[in-house]
Amino acid sequence: MEEDKEKNSGTLISVIVTTYNRSVYLYEALDSIAKQTYRNIEILLIDDGSTKQIALENKEICKKFSVCKYYYKENSGQPDSRNFGIKKSKGAYIGFCDDDDLWAIDKLERQIVILNTQNEFGLVTGCIEYISHAGMKTGILKCHAGHNHGNVFQDFLIKNRTASITPLIRREVIDKVGLFNPNFTIGEDWDYWRKVSFYFKFYAIDDVLAFVRTHENTMSRTRSTTLLGRFVLYRKLNQSLFEWGNGRFAKNDWELVEYIEWCYYRRLLNNNMPGFKKKFVFVLLLFTKNIIPPLYFIKLFLKYNSRYKPQV
């Protein structure tokens, strides 16, 4: 009885769901959140400027759940929509879900136990499993074991180690780190978890907490897989981190970020551009397109190339 009381009257959790011009999967997403075994939640559905008909459908779907509040705003992108939701939210803990994905029914219950008893962790994350467009489990998991638990700043400099829909984060973490960078259209979650991991330890549950739907409109599928696109995104991520790090980073922090950046570039070149001539031509392309300033690239090479070790 006491356990049931805690699930219904414990700390409020705010769940922010962003949507844009899509309603087909929304009911399933909201239903997976509303049916959580931990009951004291609020769902904030942030509609990022959908067309009139779809916005009406989204609003009606939200009304089916007593814990759901619908907000319509002008289109400004997912990062800004998440920020809008954070500002409207009231919970001490905050989680995010996309309008086409699902949560495991006990996700919040498992996460809040850790946050309530282990104050050294800023957030709790876990594994995802991919599901088909029809919602069928595929058995394909992504966990990032060994790289998303504890002090993981360096791990997140190398690669994004958590899906955006898995973490449950303390509000005071957001108060210290700040909001999502609205200048990103892709990669804003990676940018954000890097900043969080600079200050706070992550706790990773080695089990599936959420399900990511794969279909032609999945946001993660729009990320560029071209070599040039990967350079562009990583440079933007580090520019954002450098701006945020002013007044926060010590000298060794700056050097670590720069070193990992060089390791990332060298690995991409080694894996995709065999031979010196191809590497040289591609680097010139980076310079002419103003993706990486030539002097900065040369600085990284001179300072860190002799220390290069492949990063996992």
UniProtKB/TrEMBL annotation:
TM stretches of this protein: 280-302
E.C. number(s) listed in UniProt: 2.4.-.-
Keyword annotations from UniProtKB, A to Z: Glycosyltransferase, Membrane, Transferase, Transmembrane, Transmembrane helix
Listed Gene3D superfamilies: Spore Coat Polysaccharide Biosynthesis Protein SpsA, Chain A
Domain of life: Bacteria
One Gene Ontology molecular-function label: glycosyltransferase activity
Entries under InterPro entries matching the protein: Glyco_trans_2-like, Nucleotide-diphossugar_trans
Residue ranges annotated for the Glycosyltransferase 2-like domain, each copy included: 14-133
Protein name: Glycosyltransferase family A protein
Origin species: Aequorivita aurantiaca
